[in-house]
Amino acid sequence: MDIDAWVWWLIGAVGLGIPLVLTAMPEFGMFAAGAVAAAVTAALGGGVVAQVLVFAVVSVALIAVVRPIANRHRDQRPQHRSGIDALKGRSAVVLERVDGSGGRIKLAGEIWSARTLDADSSFEPGQSVDVVEIDGATAVVM
Description:
Layout: H1 5-23, H2 26-43, H3 48-76, H4 84-87, E1 91-99, E2 102-107, E3 110-116, E4 128-135, E5 138-141
Parallel strand pairs: 3-5
Antiparallel strand pairs: 1-2, 1-4, 2-3, 4-5
Helix pairs in contact: 1-2, 2-3
């Protein structure tokens, strides 16, 4: 049984696609695309040297062009804060007098214990405060 060269290149492309799926490393996809380009070259009658050159050129070109673009887009993604980091900087409403020793606020729909950042200041019920940090289960406000 004699298998054409283009079939071998397609088998190689599938073989390179498997680690792409398992490791999520896009470089394997770029090598797989190079193997598909080499398969097309083989199907059109290109020799072994032409097939290997097309594989190398397409793979390297994809890596050289696509990786920097992908890295740039990855770096520009907005960072989503979660947990207590998402609460810092938010506004809250004072429910019970808040001073350096404690109090209660309504923050993000929940009631939190709170204390002031400056021990000498205080806030009365109904006032709006800003959350500076979260210290354990206590919001530090100003």
